[in-house]
Amino acid sequence: MGILSWVTLSLILGMRCFTSSDASFSSDGLPGTGKKFLDLAKRKELADWMVGIRRKIHENPELGYEEFETSKLIRAELDKMGIAYKHPVGVTGVVGFIGTIKPPFVALRADMDALPMQEMVEWEYKSKVAGKMHACGHDAHVAMLLGAAKILQQHRSEIQGTIVLVFQPAEEGGGGAKKMLDEGALENVEAIFGIHVAPHITVGEVASRSGPLLAGSGFFEAVISGRGGHAAIPQHTIDPVVAASSVVISLQHLISREADPLDSQVVTVAKFQAGGAFNVIPDSVTIGGTFRAFSGNSLIQLKERIKEVIVRQAAVQRCNATVDFLTDEKPLFPPTVNNPDLHPFFQRAADDVLGTGKVHDMQPLMGSEDFSFYQDAVPGYFFFLGMVPESSQGNLETVHSQYFQVNEDVLPYGAALHASLATRFILEHQKGKSDSLTGGRHRDEL
């Protein structure tokens, strides 16, 4: 395109699409659209509204599959925007729709649940529910997706496709994503994107990678039973504490002596409950923990070996053992593996919103995410959004800490990234790039 033609097109788009109060988009106007979304999201009225939503949710945290008031708030806001939705999906989940309700379908996801923790941060909007806290930023995730919905709904007539808003329950171990999938939340969806706030990345910057990003995970609990008695005469007992101690050590050998050193795996025993007296050997000991791996096969092999080691090591000490992997409550999470064809797409979209030098590659983490269930079904991409103030000398408190705090300056960035990813996917689909975006459905595992 010649310079004169480009200037003419820019002037036309400037007059027709980007008014003082709106940011429109077209298949010819992708560059710069993301920045317009960010400008909209940063406007005081919308930014303050997202802060208010986030604080309401933060004050009233709800655990997995109990997010009834959070779901009610989301539906009330969608009603005000005139956005159609399905509810309930996955017990408390909400699935909203913006656009033509015709292909292409692209989904954006926010999780809703809190953690069973007591908030220790003293501030005006501290959790009002004893023993429950939004310590992983899910309140911010909901606020950002609602902010994106507000922006996108204002331009619904220009969206030649369908943006699916997935408000999901029970990410914290409950496998809410799987339940949402089983109930059709991603029907017809060609790609899905998810955000997680990050207390170790500067605000206005993002980090992710192509391929394996987060580990698959599972949980286990075992009861090792012997015969209790007086601590002074252990010969008349069958000591389950010794047996359980042997089990804990042996489980570590699964990593140090059986796992490939180039295939990252973890087994951690984080729960050890025995007797309550100094001079009584208990009848039983309960242990529990988690196991992680970046390969589905490695995860299954770890699960099998964990059971074998616990049962057989207990038998060596004349004890019996039962092992429960708690799959009804905490299903096995697959590894979170970003679709390699969506990686350059994400980089383009994020660059357009944030500017150059703000999009970073990162190393895989042993944490887990049930977003992986969506990625098993459709091409998906998950990334971390920074919230460390530029003036800060260090990181914020880590997620799952009683002192965790959200820097609310992050909210406009999340809303703009959601809006940009969804609209860009639809626009590039219109330009015939769908095959390159979704062709690689294989899972690239470490």
UniProtKB/TrEMBL annotation:
A Pfam cross-reference name: Peptidase_M20
Entry superkingdom: Eukaryota
Bound cofactor: record note: The Mn(2+) ion enhances activity.
Signal sequence annotation: 1-23
Cofactor(s) listed: Mn(2+)
Record's keyword terms, sorted: Hydrolase, Manganese, Metal-binding, Signal
Cellular component annotations (GO), alphabetically ordered: endoplasmic reticulum
Binding site for Mn(2+): 136, 138, 172, 196, 400
Gene Ontology terms describing biological process: auxin metabolic process
InterPro entries recorded: Amidohydrolase (IPR017439), Bact_exopeptidase_dim_dom (IPR036264), ILR1-like_Hyd (IPR044757), Peptidase_M20 (IPR002933), Peptidase_M20_dimer (IPR011650)
GO MF entries: IAA-Ala conjugate hydrolase activity; metal ion binding
Keyword Ribosomal protein: no
SUPFAM superfamilies, per database record: Bacterial exopeptidase dimerisation domain, Zn-dependent exopeptidases
Residues covered by the Peptidase M20 dimerisation domain: 216-312
NCBIfam families recorded: amidohydrolases
Family per record: Belongs to the peptidase M20 family.
Name of the protein this chain belongs to: IAA-amino acid hydrolase ILR1-like 4
Lineage: Eukaryota, Viridiplantae, Streptophyta, Embryophyta, Tracheophyta
